[in-house]
C-alpha cells in the first residue's frame, strides 16, 4: 500500500487522483497540493483526499507519503522532481518530462544518482489498444516497421499557462507532440535510435507566441519514419489516432472520436461529454470510461507494481529525456527549415540498427517490385532485372 503526495489540482491532478482511488485500491492520495487554498480544499473534499496544503515543500516532505506524483505546469516539473529526490521519495512525473532536454537530463541524472524509483506518466502508451499494438508489432505482425503516424489535435488547451512559452516551453508540439513521439518510438522499437527530424510549424489561428499547428517527421536508424501531426486548431473535439505499418501489415488505432460509442441528440444531457468535446447536441462521441480509455488505470497499475517488485516500469525518466531530445531537434528544424540531428547524450538502445528497408529477391535474376491479382483473374508481376536495372512486367 502506498500513500501519495499529489502536486497539482488541475485536470491531470484530478484524473490521476480519481484513478488512484478507483477499483478499491488500497493506494491513496494522502496529501493534495495546489497554489490556491480554495481549489486545494474543494478538490481534496471532492476526490476523497484526507489532507491538503498550499505549501509544496510540506507536501513533498510529508512523513506519511512515499510517492510524489507531479501534475504541475511543465516549467515546474524540474523543481518538483529535485525536491522529491531530496526527500528520497519515488517520483512519477506527467508529460512532458521537462521543457527541454538539458533539464530532462538533469532530472534523469538526479533520480538515477539518488537511486529513487522514477516513472514517466505517458498514459497513451498504456491504453489497452496501444499495449496490444506494441505486442503485435514485437511479434512481427506488421513485418519490419516502415512508418508510424500519430495524430493529436483539438481546439486548444484549457489553462492560460499552456499558451505561455515560459511556463509551457513551447506550443502544440511540447504539449501534444510529446505523446505522438513516444508512441512512435514505442511502435518502431524504443531501442532503435531516432537520428534526425524535420518539422513544419506555424501559428495559424491563435494570437500566441508559440506554434498552434505542426507536422513533423522523425527518421530512425532502421530507415523507419515516424510522422506526427499536432494542432490546437482542430474543429470537432479531440482527435487521437495512431498507425503503424510495415512490410507485412498495418495497424490503425482510434482512441477518442470513434471508439464504437456514438450518440445523436437534439436536446443534450448534462453538459460535459468527453475531454475537449465541442458541444452536447448532434452526433456525439462519448467515451465509456475516460480513466481507462486514456490509459491512466493500466499506467498506475503497472507503475506501482514495478515499484513493489523492484523493476523498472515500461516508461521511465530516460524515455521522457529522449522525447525531450527529439522535441529540441524539432524546434531547431522549425527555425532552420532543415533536417536536424537528434542529440542524445546517453544512448542506451542498439547501435547500428538493422535496416527495415531491404529489397526482396524474386529469383536469381530479378528483384520483386510488385505482385497484384487483376480483375480478370490474372496475376501481374512487376520485376526489376538485376543485370540491366530494367523494370519489366509478367502475367501469370
Ligand atoms: N494525458 C496527459 O498525460 C496529460 C493531460 C493533461 C495535462 N497533462 C500535464 O499535466 C500537467 C498539468 O496540466 P493540467 O492540465 O492539470 O493543468 P491545469 O491548468 O488544469 O492544472 C495545473 C495545476 O497546477 C497548478 N499551478 C498552475 N500554475 C502554478 C504555479 N505557477 N505554481 C504552482 N502551481 C501552479 C494549478 O493551480 C493547478 O493545480 C502539465 O505538465 C500537462 O502537460 C498531462
Order of helices and strands: EHEHEHEHEHEHEHHEEEEEEEHHHEEEE
- Helix/strand-derived category reads alpha/beta
Q: How many DSSP helices?
A: 11
Task: Provide the CATH top-level class of the largest domain.
Answer: Alpha Beta
Outline the biggest β-sheet: 7 strands, mixed
Radius of gyration: 23 Å
- What is the mean pLDDT? 96
Give the fraction of residues assigned to helices. 25-40%
Write out the distinct hetero groups bound to the structure: nicotinamide-adenine-dinucleotide
In the CATH hierarchy, what is the architecture of the largest domain at level 2?
Answer: 2-Layer Sandwich
- What are the segments in which pLDDT stays under 50 over at least 5 consecutive residues? none
Q: How do the strands line up in the largest sheet?
A: 12-11-7-10-9-8-15
Count of β-strands: 18
Q: What share of the residues does DSSP label as strand, in percent?
A: 25-35%
As for the CATH topology of the largest domain, it is Dihydrodipicolinate Reductase, domain 2
Q: Distance between the terminal alpha carbons, to the nearest Å? A: 67 Å
Indicate the overall shape.
globular
The CATH homologous superfamily of the largest domain corresponds to Dihydrodipicolinate Reductase, domain 2
**How many domain modules?**
3
Give an overview in words:
- There is one protein chain.
- The radius of gyration is 23 Å and the shape is globular.
- Helix 4 runs parallel beside helix 5, helix 5 packs antiparallel against helix 11 and helix 6 crosses helix 8.
- Strand 5, helix 5 and strand 6 form a beta-alpha-beta unit.
- It has three domains: 93 residues, 3-Layer(aba) Sandwich (Rossmann fold), CATH 3.40.50; 201 residues, Dihydrodipicolinate Reductase, domain 2; 30 residues, no CATH class.
- 30% of the residues lie in helices and 26% in strands.
- The strands form four sheets. A seven-stranded mixed beta sheet has the order 12-11-7-10-9-8-15. Strands 3-2-1-4-5-6 form a six-stranded parallel beta sheet, with helices on both faces.
- The protein is α/β, with parallel strands linked by helices.
- The mean pLDDT is 96.
- Bound molecules: nicotinamide-adenine-dinucleotide (NAD).
- Nicotinamide-adenine-dinucleotide binds next to helix 1.
Amino acid at each position: 500500500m502506498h500513500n501519495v503526495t499529489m502536486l497539482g489540482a488541475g485536470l491531470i491532478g484530478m484524473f490521476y487522483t480519481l484513478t488512484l482511488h478507483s477499483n478499491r485500491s488500497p493506494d491513496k492520495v494522502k496529501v493534495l497540493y495546489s497554489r490556491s487554498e480554495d481549489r486545494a480544499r474543494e478538490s481534496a473534499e471532492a476526490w476523497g483526499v484526507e489532507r491538503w496544503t498550499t505549501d509544496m515543500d510540506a507536501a513533498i516532505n510529508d512523513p506519511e507519503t512515499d510517492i510524489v506524483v507531479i501534475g504541475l505546469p511543465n516549467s515546474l516539473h524540474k523543481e518538483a522532481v529535485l525536491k522529491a529526490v531530496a526527500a528520497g521519495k519515488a517520483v512519477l512525473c506527467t508529460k512532458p518530462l521537462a521543457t527541454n532536454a538539458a533539464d530532462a537530463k538533469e532530472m534523469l541524472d538526479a533520480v538515477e544518482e539518488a537511486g529513487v524509483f522514477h516513472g514517466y506518466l505517458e498514459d497513451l502508451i498504456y491504453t489497452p489498444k496501444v499495449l496490444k499494438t506494441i505486442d503485435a508489432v514485437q511479434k512481427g505482425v506488421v513485418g519490419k516497421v516502415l512508418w508510424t503516424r500519430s495524430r493529436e489535435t483539438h481546439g486548444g488547451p484549457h489553462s492560460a499557462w499552456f499558451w505561455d512559452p515560459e511556463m509551457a516551453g513551447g506550443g502544440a508540439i511540447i504539449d501534444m507532440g510529446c505523446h505522438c513521439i513516444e508512441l512512435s518510438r514505442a511502435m518502431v522499437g524504443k531501442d532503435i535510435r531516432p537520428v534526425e527530424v524535420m518539422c513544419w510549424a506555424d501559428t495559424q489561428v491563435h494570437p500566441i507566441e508559440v506554434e498552434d499547428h505542426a507536422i513533423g517527421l522523425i527518421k530512425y536508424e532502421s530507415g523507419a519514419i515516424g510522422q506526427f501531426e499536432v494542432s490546437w486548431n482542430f474543429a470537432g473535439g479531440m482527435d487521437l489516432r495512431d498507425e503503424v505499418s510495415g512490410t507485412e501489415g498495418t495497424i490503425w488505432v482510434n482512441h477518442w472520436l470513434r471508439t464504437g460509442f456514438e450518440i445523436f441528440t437534439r436536446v443534450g444531457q448534462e453538459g460535459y461529454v468527453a475531454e475537449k468535446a465541442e458541444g452536447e447536441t448532434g452526433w456525439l462521441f462519448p467515451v465509456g470510461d475516460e480513466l481507462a480509455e486514456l490509459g491512466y488505470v493500466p499506467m498506475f497499475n503497472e507503475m506501482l507494481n514495478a515499484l513493489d517488485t523492484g523493476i523498472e516500469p515500461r516508461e521511465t525518466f530516460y524515455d521522457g529525456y529522449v522525447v525531450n531530445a527529439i522535441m529540441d531537434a524539432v524546434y531547431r528544424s522549425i527555425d532552420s527549415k532543415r533536417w536536424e540531428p537528434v542529440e542524445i547524450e546517453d544512448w542506451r538502445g542498439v547501435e547500428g540498427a538493422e535496416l527495415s528497408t531491404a529489397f526482396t529477391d524474386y529469383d536469381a535474376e530479378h528483384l520483386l517490385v510488385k505482385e497484384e491479382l487483376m480483375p480478370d483473374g490474372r496475376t501481374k508481376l512487376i520485376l526489376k532485372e538485376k543485370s540491366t536495372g530494367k523494370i519489366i512486367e509478367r502475367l501469370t
